[in-house]
Amino acid sequence: MNSDCIFCRIIARQLPSTTVYEDPHTLAFLDIAPIVKGHTLVIPKTHHDPLLDTPGPVLEQLILVVRKLARAMRSGLGAAGINITQANGPLAGQIVPHVHFHIIPRFNDDQHSWAAPQGDYDDDDDRCRFATQIQAAITSDPEHNNG
Ligand code: AMP
Ligand code: ZN
Predict the structure, then answer these.
(1) Atom number of ligand 1 nearest to Cα 33
(2) Active site includes 47?
């Protein structure tokens, strides 16, 4: 537990929240400011951040609960679609530094737009340079051959 972390304090019941699902490793609760009503956050009960540095076994449990919640929104809320998002770092819009997934049910009349402008690469060299740099980092990552 990180006592400076609001999500750790929610897990410890030091702060209120509306629980949707809980198991020994995971807590899911309603976002206090929903993008669409039913918007739920799924967090591990141990403090990790960002996702990039979160152990694989923790993420494996977490993503299965994300799927469980998404399925429940489809069958229980009648969601026509589901957005699943996850931010790492303030520049990416992360506010709370405890790894979490947002699960957002979507309805025909929810008035929410996910449209974002998309760009392009300058040319083939520009595109290949990005792919090559990412590929090189993957192969040099010590975790690469350890799952
Ligand atoms: P992020 O920008 O990915 O870090 O998202 C953090 C989310 O936590 C935001 O959508 C907030 O509305 C939500 N949030 C912050 N405090 C609380 C709280 N006490 N209970 C429920 N949700 C919260
Ligand atoms: Zn925490």
Answers:
(1) 12
(2) no
